[in-house]
Fold:
Amino acid sequence: MVFLLMIHYIVLQDVSDELDLKIKKYLRGEGANLEALKDKKLKGQLSVREELFSKSAKVAAKADKYYLQIKYLKISLWLVPSEGGYLEGEGIEKTWRIKQEAISKEVDILSSRKQFDIILPELGPYTLDFTSSGRYMAVGGRKGHIGIVDMMQLSIIREFQVRETVRDVAFLHNEMFFAAAQKKYPYIYNRDGTELHCLKEHGAVLRLQFLKNHFLLASINKFGQLHYQDVTTGSMAGNYRTGLGRTSVMQVNPFNGVIGLGHSGGTVTMWKPTSSAPLVKMLCHHGPLSALAFHSNGNLMATAGKDKKVKLWDLRKFEVLQTFPGHANTLDFSQKGLLACGTGSFVQVLGDLSGSHNYSRYMTHSMAKGYQIGKLTFRPYEDVLAIGHSMGFSSILIPGSGEPNFDSWVANPFETSKQRREKEVRSLLDKLPPETIMLDPSKIGTVKPTKREKPTQKERETEVDAAIEAVKDKKMKKKTKGRNKPGKMMKKKQEAIDKVKRPYLEQKLKEEEVSRKKQKISEEVTLPKSLERFARKAAS
Amino acid sequence: MKVKVISRSADDFTRERSNDLQLLSFLLPLSEFVLCSFELIKRVFRNYDPSIRSQEKAVEYVRALNAAKLEKIFARPFIGAMDGHVDAVSSMAKNPNHLKGIFSGSMDGDIRLWDISTRRTVCQFPGHQGAVRGLTVSTDGRLLVSCGTDCSVRLWNVPVATDMESGGSSANSAKPISVYIWKNAFWAVDHQWDGELFATAGAQVDIWSHNRSQPINTFEWGSDSVISVRFNPGEPNILATSASDRSITLYDLRMASPVRKIIMMTKTNSISWNPREPINFTAANEDGNCYSYDSRKLDEAKCVHRDHVSAVMDIDYSPTGREFVTGSYDRTVRIFQYNGGHSREIYHTKRMQRVFCVKFSCDASYVVSGSDDTNLRLWKARASEQLGVVLPRERKKHEYNEALKKRYKHLPEVKRIVRHRHLPKPIFKATSLMRVMADARKRKEERRKAHSAPGSIKTEPLRRRRIIKEIE
Structure:
């Protein structure tokens, strides 16, 4: 009895610990430091606000609580949200040795139907895209075959032949519309395959991406031009030359809407529609980039280069976290953070199994020999990886890749047409302006920090003195005979001091010049009209 | 090998019958458990995880901006005018016992009872010879007291609600129960909140009872005429008056003489007690400001409410005590927070002339103004409020929008939209002129201070500057 009680106690302890973790997640960062405030009224108001936030975080965390109880007390409550998938090896069994056939034997019939291979050898290589709810898939064959598939019913909604090259397909905000990058221009079709628009301004597009919060269709064309088009109004939101050559490596960072492009020089550039220069330009590989993917939390980027390396980057510090050997033609992060790499006919899924951004092998899958994988995409809210390859498209099960609980008001796989229409209106009302795309989206809704004032004369002097002192104290290296004379040493030291002083002096000169110019302008202005002709002309 | 994959059977996630509800967000205030079971019925599944909502902060900001814009779009405060008087409306009274009725008296001696819902005259009370200066209704809503420049106080029976509805024609007219003629013209009248006394103001303050033909008590302090009187809603024996000698005086009926008096630089036209904090009152001043006082501490105003550009003629508190409405000689009506230095709202129309009297309705959702152009005007207290029955989902949406606006009110874009009010040109000009004058005065004082011995010139805060002295 005591033993049982103890277990119960430990379990409860665990539950409360996990609840704290969840609350932390929903708090979205630390609250304001109220101790530093002097204004009592403001302090009171803010403390009320903070309390409200913590309360709402607690309520949100409690929604997960039922789930926790199930996990620990093994009570099967049918009220709870569903639990995520997993794959664990027993004994010395390795997860990456487990074959898809073995998995299909263990899972239910409904799930085993999600493994399939569609062989369409004539029209290949195929590219894929899912709607945000993961219910519908668009497939585009290079030879002009376009189709929309309902993945839940496993039925084709529409397929048609455009009789020209199709390089990419992308859904717009819902399954009613999609864009296809064809030989000369991208086109927008509706679900029935009716051509609605031809976007001639984009040119011959290689890759298409849709930013669903902003209703922007982004494309990169053969000449390395990046276009942003607002699909609600049809206006061009941005049109920039990257100047880094032709590339077909483009991915939207779902966290902030910034577009990442991988170039043949090994650089990755990040773009927003309101600036003509890239926000970030980083050298990632010694060789052309072949694939790029962003984690949904915005902190992680995966790149693959032709230099036979796959790298994981920390986007907060722009540093490499991990490097893996091997090629990858395509990369994709799942909702739960698994990373799929595809090369040749081989798929490898890396997982962050320890939870500390330390990726290691999780699952592998080999297709029939000769298949060339072109595109890997995880299906949202499902444990499914879709593969577009040269002989058609396939789908395999990757347990633990999808988010198990969907939110009906964010992305609902079981959406009715009425709900879809209502959601379309809502999302149009919440459409974000292109200015909200920035590297750190948490800055929106905050106050600009006050400008740092200019350092005073005294501060500047002390700074210069400190710099000179630092140089003076430096020990000189012993040189060979003849170059070590005290005179030469003195001269060298003086040179070093001058070098340190130089930037300060230059700045001073510049400021003086600016003030002189200002004075000149004001002098000109103050002269009355009748006297202007006597004013001294500027030295020419 | 242990394996599990996400598997959702369509039966668990779609409704069984087509008439099952899909969205029932009005159930949200229910307890969690009930909510959970309801959510299963309606097939709505929530996951509050921030990672599935990208750019949520930007989305929220855009929503706040939209909420601010919507508020502006729906801001249609004017409901209608009540036309009927043939001269300027000089006084109004609301019936504390009946929400729909409002009394108004005009400069030609006409008194009317209006039905606010139909905006028609229900009953007329003829009899006064000159202007009706004061109107008040007893707390039980049965008795109307009017007084005017014809030196008479008249008591009237208020018609019962059922009579009001049946008799729609304006031909309905009542006869006074009693008429008391007194020595001099009256300027104001107010009924006690709890009891059967009422006070009139004129050359002196007289306290009357319902069934006496002569005042039972008379107060006098100074020689100038008293122009407004208001009983305290909390303590029935205390009243405040203002007089044309620029004074505000507090009286206690239990004492033989007035209690306290302050003299300000300009005349106070009207006084209103805060019904929720009955120790505080706000005085509408001739200089265009309103001054909130704590009646225990009259040497300094608690708050100065600025914005009117001309004399404030009348003031009335909302029954919630959080807001009050003022009518001004500058042809505008403004609504202030009880502790706000500037107005929350300004109402004006092209045809509205000098506003002489304003009232907040007893349910705090409407404002009535009476002006020189012989009309009473009915306004919404919250300009963009949705009238009529509000569905729970609509109410939730309104609340959400309010919360968003509150959260982002400091950001320049939202602030600009929320604060902006279109002003009539003369008021806009007068405001900027007054700002220039205030700046000049301030500059001058700063210079004077800088050039005199330190500490010899003290800057009085505005809360104290307009008060000359306090007399006990």
Summary: Chain B touches chain A through 42 residues (CB under 8 Å). Confidence is low (pLDDT under 50) at residues 23-40 of chain B. The domain at 78-384 of chain B is CATH 2.130.10.10 (Methylamine Dehydrogenase; Chain H). DSSP finds eight helices and 30 strands in chain B.
